[in-house]
Amino acid sequence: MNSSINTPGAAIRRETVVVLHGVAVSRRLTALLARRIAAAGYEVHNLDYPSRTLSLPELGDRWLPAKLAELEVGRAPRLHFVAHSMGGLMVRRCLATYRPPNLGRVVLIAPPNRGSAVADHLQRWRLFRGVIGRNLVVLGTGPAAFWRSLPQSVDCELGVIAGNRALNPFGRFWLEPPHDGTVAVASTRLEGQSDHLVLPANHTGILLRRDTADQVVAFLRTGKFAP
């Protein structure tokens, strides 16, 4: 499913942004961010995807390219991506195998670009494997972690927004500070990234902040975050 925030007849004329949530949640969590991006003049598609049941390779190789074709975003002047947490890994996988000809800029928010030690520990517990789904076991830092299968350098305009405030109690035990309770700031960085920004926010709350949306829009417009 997807939620489109647009003006009828404007799809070809306006730059388009695809927004993707993280694991085991829905587009409701990214709805406010999507509305704020749309208010800046973009056509926005805030997508739901089966993060608990389809593997990351399936999501990046097949599900996302098929959804982009269905939405006909190839008709837009430029196509941007804004993705939270695991959604960022899905976007990176997609761009490694399928590069839209009108690709614009990419913003990853709190992405586990080098995995999360929290996932290493939670995957040992059946309860969390059931709640979070099949991708929990590949979101960690070990040899089988999904991020290790991705290109380790960036070949597009990509900005990263990380958080350094923790509400998740597990992060305090398992992550090196600074971190957002789920992902360490150091793990969000990518070689070749265009810009990197740290906000005083936790892993989920970062999506609700006005300054997050403002910085996303700044990067989509200029390729840099605002000072």
CATH architecture: 3-Layer(aba) Sandwich
* Gap from first CA to last CA: 36 Å
**Distinct helical segment count:** 8
CATH topology: Rossmann fold
Largest beta sheet: what is the strand line-up? 1-3-2-4-5-6-7
Order of helices and strands: EEHEHEHEHHEHHEH
- Based on CA atoms alone, the radius of gyration comes out at 16 Å
Q: Which residue ranges are poorly predicted, with pLDDT under 50 across at least 5 consecutive positions?
A: 7-11
Count of all domains = 1
| Class from secondary-structure proportions | alpha/beta
Shape: globular
Helix content: 25-40%
Largest sheet: 7 strands, mixed
CATH level 1 class label: Alpha Beta
Provide the residue-averaged pLDDT.
93
The fourth-level CATH homologous superfamily is Alpha/Beta hydrolase fold, catalytic domain
Strand content: 15-25%
Number of strands: 7
Describe the structure.
- The protein is of the alpha/beta class.
- Helix content is 32%, strand content 17%.
- Helix 1 links the parallel strand 2 (16-20) and strand 3.
- It is built from eight helices and seven strands.
- Strands 1-3-2-4-5-6-7 form a seven-stranded mixed β-sheet, sandwiched between helices.
- It has one domain: Rossmann fold, CATH 3.40.50.
